[in-house]
Amino acid sequence: MTNPAAHFKQVNHSVTKVDAKQLALGKNSYVGDFVPSDALIVKMLWSPHPHARIKAIDVSKAEKMPGVKAVLWHGNVPRNIHCTAGQGFPEPSPYDTFIFDTKVRFVGDRVAAVAAETAEQAEAALARIHVEYELLPPVFSIDEAMADGAPVIHDEPEAHVPIPIPYEPKKNLVARVGCEAGDFEQGMKDADFTFDDTYETPYAQHCPIEPYTSLAHIDSAGRIIITTSTQVPFHCRRIVAQALGIPVQKIRVIKPRIGGGFGSKQEILLEDIVALFALRTGRPVFWQFTREENFRTGRTRHPIRVRLRTGVKKDGTITAIGMDCWNNTGAYGGHGLTVVSCCGSKVLPLYRCDNIHFLGLVYYTNLPVGGAYRGFGATQAFFAMESTIDKMAEAIGMDPLEFRRKNHIKTGEGSPVFAALGEGKEGTPMTVGSCALGECIEKGAAAIGWQNRTDWRTKTGRYRRGIGMACLMQGSSIPHIDMGGASIKINEDGSFNLLVGATDLGTGSDTVLAQIAAEELATTTDKMIVYSSDTDMTPFDVGAYASSTTYLSGEAARKAAADAKRQILKTGAEMLNLPVDQVVCQDAHVQTPDGSQKVSYGDIACYALYQKNQYQIIGTGSHITEKSPPPFAAHYAEIEVDTWTGLIKVLKYVSTIDCGTAINPALCEGQTEGGTLNGISYALTEQYLFQNGRMTNASFADYHIFSMRDKPPIQAILVPSYEDTGPFGAKSVSEICINGPAPVFANALYNATGARLYEFPFTPERVLKAIQAVKR
Amino acid sequence: MKLCEFLRPASLPAARDNLRELGPKGMALAGGTALHFMQDHTPVTAVDITHLGLSYIRPDGDFYRIGATTPLADIQRYRAPRWAMHEICRRIATHQIRNISTLGGNVCRVFPWADLPVVLLAMNARMVVYTGHDQELGADEYFKTQPAKRYLKGDLLREVKVPALRSHHGFGSVKVVRTAAAFSMVTIACVLELDGQNIKSARVAAGSAIPFPRRLPSVEAALTGKEARAGVFQEAAAQAGHDAPWRGREGMSTDYSRHLAEVSILDALERAASFARERT
User: Fold this and answer.
1) CA–CA gap between residue B28 and residue A599 (Å, rounded)
2) Does residue A363 share a domain with residue A349?
3) CB-based contact (8 Å) between B212 and chain A?
4) Angle (CA) A334 A335 A340, round 5°
């Protein structure tokens, strides 16, 4: 059967990004481009201590310093508890944050802020703020956090959760979530082979090229206008209103172009401060994190310990999977519950198994704060799952590819996990609609040369090669939680204004949504004028996260376009003196099916606006999802290991993906390559190093991310499927690719040397020790 | 440092006069990349030395003369017989940084991770320092301590004389990095002089995994007079622990750092021997 996507004229084509020229010219695009010359500059005094109470603070000298216009600290700001994570409402995260508090909970927590005429003046003033701390015993690990009598990090009485989930701050427990299906213990007993392994995954930073950046000013009506680099403009407006104790009506949030987010900008870390300073001073106020601040104070990937217990029969049947996850959320709890939930919900359904156990626990520590990060828990859990899948295959003497092919979920199948695990509540029962994972496995295997792979552990010599693989899934939006809206109106020349709340943070979603709308309207993408994410001007959208934009906001754009199309057809039919059911939309015209009579969209717009029964042709649409169809992927890599030094070189990486219809194949390939490289870097080099809770490598000189200079050959292969519930068959593409490299490399390293690592990054020293242990 | 004023002298003597006059408030400025690592806010006056005709690479008898303000990118691109400096330069930082970072900037103030001092020590280069007149210093003496101290009174590096490699001489270098643009985990450079199958002389230097670049005399001693073969190289590399206080950094343990240095020495020696044999 032909894939319907083959016949699309706008969708499934690599049209040029709608903002390409603007970005290439580098003009008036990012927050930093809009800073007026009279803007005050913000600098923050950060806590040097991981855990301390502020006994006294004196800002009087700072207030008198040259150029200083205002100083904020816990004594002169509203004390409204809130959550900085923008992820739905009410939030599935604890309210545990104040604008400023009398306690600091990690190195990099807020103490006081200065707004001054120049950055130098602001920094000079910070040096004059005197703070007296009472040092408290810090908590630096999950084990310390869980221990009886552990120091309590959130002892403030206001801390609470807005939804009914387990939350015990006196035990440092942020959340507990779990599910059971079948009989896990019986499943373990039924197995011929059982496994019980614990895996550790590390901190990581998103490293967007544009740091956290915000600008605020007061308009002539007295409203606060916040221009900010955010993934969640509408959550931003709500959270700033809550933190400041002012109505949402007083705030407008504008998202210009964004220099990358990857989840980090799903958090409200600057906007409350610039808004408050703007209110206090009446001046425009600008704040941009330094790279060091991005590392220390910005959000990170949650480090998670995963204990995986599994059972398998000799015939390859998986009899039991038990996953216990301990999530270190750092000093504040945003995203803690949902990330750990996704460890289960985005990973466990991939393989058929009747007996499942899942438990996720989230704990506070006095370390940097975890947040949303591409992959969102699945990245951490897939390291454990896909490493163990290889171990199971080896135990029963089956090729790991065959083992995966035998067990992976297929079209029409469901998983009890879909219904059991949601984000902050139960999930949604679901069967898989589209699934081209089998084809992904085949194509990836051919591309990497899997047929030539054998057990290379017995080889000798310094440099050893190995091939590894992993299968992956993610989701597309969060059912019954995420919502996207769009509106579209026609102009006299047949162009359209497409207004979307969805947030393009460099992903190309404005282009993708324009393509979807154009396809629905039977016009061309270049006729779309896209304006995204302005809380005054565009419809609501929860924002860019949870792999939702194409699938969820795309369907909202399609619905809005369909609404406008109905009006265009009606007016066009009226102009042609034909019944509506005898005309169609084609090539920006309303016409008879044979094309003998037709009228252009431009003429229809002019007719509707100026000539008869005038009205504005405008369509609106909003969308929530009933399911979260997983994209699927099979990843492969060939690596070369220097067994004398432990250095790993990636010779080739193959990243296949089933994202349904690729709305814009070039952008999908870009997401796939970028996400894969992101994952390679995370697996091999990225590392937070600490000394007494202080990150010691908070710069790009010391924190190593892969750049294009380091990029190994990556072959991205798009494997089409058609997801009936998505816009023109689309699913998501953005997150899944980061989940692959860590397990793929672990499996390849084992294939090459027999050394299996349960912790990454795979630093040379760690790899060398594992190799030496095998030799011993 | 915070650059507050900017002078552009017309000659090397004038630049030296400016710097002597300014004392600690003055700073010779060429590429300026080192400023990134000098992030105190002391106000200084920059004395621009980029227009003094010190950007050049000239063969001169047994040496190549490289001007102090020659960008690393120029050294990377330069090709000539008996020349090997490009090999390490192409591995320093990024193209953008190599376009502005200069030879002088890398050797007048030596950071622990600097690669060029390691190479210049191995090659036995000579530094020409302008102190009112030209004073020539061998690499061993020049890199005995932090060279920045030498320039506190306004003296300036004019050029570096890198010996041309003679026949039977081989050069090898190894820079171990986590990513292409990262600072080195360990840098090793060596020059071997072969006499038939035997090593007549050896200069081996290391950097990055030790506090300051230095030669490795025990390693050199274990090579001199011996046959140039893998076993000898291995025994020599094993001496590295005697010569330098290897240290763990970036999460590496001290033991691993030393081990990595030993493997890198071995690799550098293999390369140098191979280089020399090709030139015999």
Assistant:
1) 73
2) yes
3) no
4) 135
Name the 3-class secondary structure at A543.
Answer: coil
Please, are residues A112 and A100 in contact by the beta-carbon 8 Å criterion? yes
Do A256 and A114 fall into the same domain?
yes
| Residue B234: Cβ within 10 Å count | 15
Contacts of B111 in chain A (CB under 8 A): none
> Chain B partners of A120 at a C-beta cutoff of 8 Å?
41
User: Looking at the domain assignment, is residue A558 inside a domain?
Assistant: yes
Q: With CB atoms and an 8 Å threshold, state whether B183 touches A768.
A: no
Report the chain B residue with the minimal C-alpha distance to residue A700. B182
Q: Same domain, yes or no, for A114 and A224?
A: yes
DSSP lists the bridge partners of residue A484 as A541, A623
Taking CA–CA distances from B258, the nearest residue in chain A reads A645
Contact A678, A374 (CB under 8 A): yes
Looking at CATH, the fold of the domain delimited by B169-278 is given as Enolase-like; domain 1 (3.30.390)
Q: What is the nearest CA distance from A765 to chain B, expressed in angstroms?
A: 6
Residue from A45, A138, A82 nearest A332 by CA: A82
Residues A587 and A636 in one domain: no
Do the beta carbons of residue A13 and residue A519 sit within 8 Å?
Answer: no
| A584 lies in the same domain as A660 | no
Is there a contact between B256 and A709 if contact means CB atoms under 8 Å apart? no
HSE-CB at A229 with a 13 A cutoff on CA atoms is 29
Class of domain B2-48: alpha beta
Mean pLDDT of A444-459: 95
One of 3.30.710.10, 3.40.50.2300, 3.30.465.10, 3.30.470.20 is the CATH number of B57-163, namely: 3.30.465.10
**Chain A residues contacting B, CB < 8 Å?**
120, 644-645, 647, 684-685, 687, 689, 697, 701-702, 704-707, 709-710, 763-765, 768
Q: Which residues of A touch B178 (CB under 8 A)?
A: 684-685, 704
Q: Which among A120, A685, A764 has CB closest to B179?
A: A685
Taking only the tens place, the pLDDT of each residue in B10-24 is 999 999 999 999 999
CA A2 to chain centre: 33
Q: Among A624, A648, A668, which residue terminates a domain?
A: A624
Cβ atoms A124, A65 nearer than 8 A: yes
Interface test with B, best of A43, A292, A702 (most B CBs within 10 A): A702
How many other CB atoms sit within 10 Å of the CB of residue B61? Answer: 9
pLDDT in tens, B210-241: 999 999 999 999 999 999 999 999 999 999 99
- Tally of structural domains, chain A: 3
Q: What is the CATH number of the domain that holds A120?
A: 3.90.1170.50
Does the pLDDT of residue B34 top 90, yes or no? no
Contact A763 B252 (CB under 8 A): yes
Q: What is the pLDDT of residues B146-202, one digit of tens each?
A: 999 999 999 999 999 999 999 899 999 999 999 999 999 999 999 999 999 999 999
Q: Do A768 and B179 touch (CB under 8 A)?
A: no
Domain of residue A45 covers 35-136+212-288
A341, A426 Cβ separation under 8 angstroms: no
Tell me the domain boundaries of chain B: 2-48, 57-163, 169-278
Nearest 10 degrees: Cα torsion B78, B83, B87, B88: -100
B230 touches chain A (CB under 8 A): no
